[in-house]
Amino acid sequence: MSLKEEQQKYMQALQQYAEGKRFKYHIVTYGCQMNVHDSEKLAGMLQEIGYEETQVLEEADIILFNTCCVREHAEQRVYGNVGALRSYKQSNPNLILGVCGCMMQQKETAEDIIKKFPFVDLVFGTHNLHHFPRLLFEAVNSGHTVVEILDEEGNIVEGIPAKRASNVSAYVTIMYGCNNFCTYCIVPHVRGRERSRLPGDITDEIGELAANGCKEITLLGQNVNSYGKDLGDGYLFPDLLRDVNKIEGIERIRFVTSHPKDLSDDLIDAMAECEKVCEHIHLPLQAGSNVILRKMNRRYTREDYLKLVDKLRARIPGIAVSTDIIVGFPGETEEDFLDTLDMMERVQYDSAFTFIYSPRKGTPAASMPDGVDTEVKKERLNRLIALQNDISKAKNQLYMDKVVEVLVEGVSKNNPKMLSGRTRTNKLVHFEGGSEIIGEFVNVKITLPKAWTLEGRMI
Ligand code: SF4
Q1: Which helix (H) or strand (E) holds 12?
Q2: Does the CB atom of residue 352 touch ligand 1 within 6 A?
Q3: If you take atom 4 of ligand 1, which residue's CA is the nearest one?
Q4: Residue 56, in any domain of the structure
Q5: Domain check: are 74 and 119 in the same one?
Q6: CA–CA gap between residue 194 and residue 175 (Å, rounded)
Q7: Of 82, 299, 388, 404, which has the fewest beta carbons less than 10 angstroms from its beta carbon?
Q8: How confident is the model over 389-421, as pLDDT tens digits?
Q9: Are residues 125 and 12 in the same domain?
């Protein structure tokens, strides 16, 4: 049976099971944009079966936790949140509780979840998301916990429906997995090796999104810069950018994440040439010390990284640069940390996601000696955040009185009287306006630059 036939068979079976009742679903997503987009696919399949989304947990007939294992904190939240649903399950035995995603791809963790929370109905990993209709059907009918975790990532599956959070701005996965094995990172162990989608499949999907009103796309992959290397025909990420740039209706192109070691001159040229590629790059530094970068297996030096930033700024004037930084990696001395602060000063990032190192079982770094004391890690994190706050504030001050083009995303999460949207440089802008302009490009004059956001007036 082909996958399409399997999906149709179980979707129909689930529709019959529903007997015309409109079941409701609620999905809780942890982690990166890849996970967010996986949740959009789970939602897409549920919608096609006939389920509708609810934000109210008590109303849901199925609750899914799409988990992340990149940091310990996210894992602990999953344990807490799944545990908290015990009473829901007691009061509604027909409720289906599912746990999926990266955490479940680790068999030991999946077993632990099942042992601690026997009321969970469905557990599956990252490699079999496309079998979700069958797994859900089995969970609904079996009366015991359905568990399916595949060791092998398998071929890329096309054509899974997705219910995207926005009509104007969409995520499009261009590749899966990662070959880099940074010593602290669990991703290659749970997402498998790099597999690139075929260019035609990607451009067809984007063409369809554009035809339905999408204006901005974000190309997703753990390391988009190595897109195409596994296809073996010489078609690489810069080629894809140039082709996506030609798609009518798409006005902005973004991409995450870029590994510095794979950021080629051709890619920088493509970014500069393609007028739709936004002037922003997320370029994880992770650490500023060459000793720590080597221990992390990042395969670039601080000097390489600085040269890249210089090249980017020379070719793409005004480009915003954001980053990820880990503090407290095993063996990180005060001197190593000062190197990280120094890199922050030199690069002058627009923003930085800063994390305290947390060991991930099964990664080489988890068994490295010289763990850094928790208090020292916290103190270093605070110093890093304080420096970045000052830099972000100063950088945002440069926007004062400037007019920027904003793609209006929706009502501001913090202030329902304001709208919010992003500049091409990925700055979040708040301003007053009516909901009729959601999804439109507008010009906003910045009147109040803050450390993390800009406020302004539509003109
Ligand atoms: S590049 Fe490194 S940090 Fe990023 S997903 Fe791959 S192994 Fe993890």
Answers
A1: helix 3-18
A2: no
A3: 222
A4: yes
A5: yes
A6: 7
A7: 299
A8: 999 999 999 999 999 999 999 999 888 889 999
A9: yes
